[in-house]
Target: Glycoside hydrolase family 71 protein
Amino acid sequence: MLASFAIGLLLLSTQACAFVLLPTTSTSKIDKVVVAHFMVCNTYTYSITDWERDFALAASKGIDGFALNIGYDSWYPDKVRDAYIAAANTGGAFKLFISFDMTSFPCMAPEHGNIIREYINTYYVHPNQLLYNSHPLVSTFGGQHCTFGTGNLNDGWSSVLKREMRPNHFIPAFFMSPSDFAGYPVMDGAFNWNSGWPPAGDDITFDRDAEYVNNLGGRSYMAAMSPWFFTHYGANTYNKNFIFRGDDWLVASRWESILEHRSSVDLVEIITWNDYGESHYVGPIEGSQPGSESWVNGFDHTAWLDIMQYYITAFKTGAFPAVSADRIFLWARLYPAGADAPDSIGRPFNWQFTQDYLWAFVFLAAPAEITLTCGPSSETKSALRGVVKMKLLLSQTCDVSAAISRGGLTIVKLAPEGFRFRTDPPMYNFNAFVAASP
Model:
């Protein structure tokens, strides 16, 4: 799901889901919370065990919970119930909350609020319900058009969430000018969905976050972070075919921007755990894909979770963990952005904003030399202990590899199977191929 500022249109997903998790059962405010957006629409074939496996993996990386993004269809309540059962099975640590996809839910008549209230009330006191400021967290994707039979947005959402309801903490993703926030006291905060990617061909900055923070008047701010974006649906399906720029180590650069302004950010929502259709998934490829198999299968992204864990620790504690082991992370597109392909859907919008580079993120436990190679193209850098970023221009068909060496001895060698850059793409696939050393 998303609002596309890059092509000047509001492009809303036709699916629904959510994400987020917490490491404590405390009912008081937790200073820094990290959740992941989880698309429940992709769990049609999930069992309780599948949910438990995802929760365990996310928790192991420091994620506090999932924002369960849900739509209006009749099968969603059963899946949400399964998620809360699975969370309870794993103990009280991992948290859930519901993010209502308001591109799916009707919201113009008074009775349209009933199902939203029912969801909230059903899990209000569940031990795995994520609480913020001592109250259940409630979020949305969109909903700035909803009036629920009143005359305006504020009265409409107040009638659903605040009047004759037990207290909740409402942090919606309304797509509107932040300068309007003062007129909507129903909002206990705001989720800035579009802050996860840079606009057009620019670098990521904190500017759009600052605009939200400056207009919230001390209310909660939830920032988005996302490692990538590519969707490739033709006019006969969802009619979404574009990218957002993921260059310059976005998975790390966005976290660094957030950490630089850590005092202004209360919560971070990772977009996403499992939105395969938009290629920004960081969890395993499983469940039911929304017709995205042609650009998702074979493109595992879970290695990004280990990079995120490093930054999540810093966000929560205020200090980076010590680097104690050597590790290499690599990612890139497998085809040139400007190459022609026999693909009837066409080259994605915004393709010109991305460059043909291999992106490397390296943990060094001690000073060493790092070498990136693809065919005759090679780059070597000497670096001190810590985190090192490198890039390598990709211009011809070649196999990607990387190595860490000390004193002339190779310590780590990474030559991922399938990581081959080709100049003759079989389709316009702008998804990232991600790999890491053990």
Remarks:
- The longest strand covers residues 398-406.
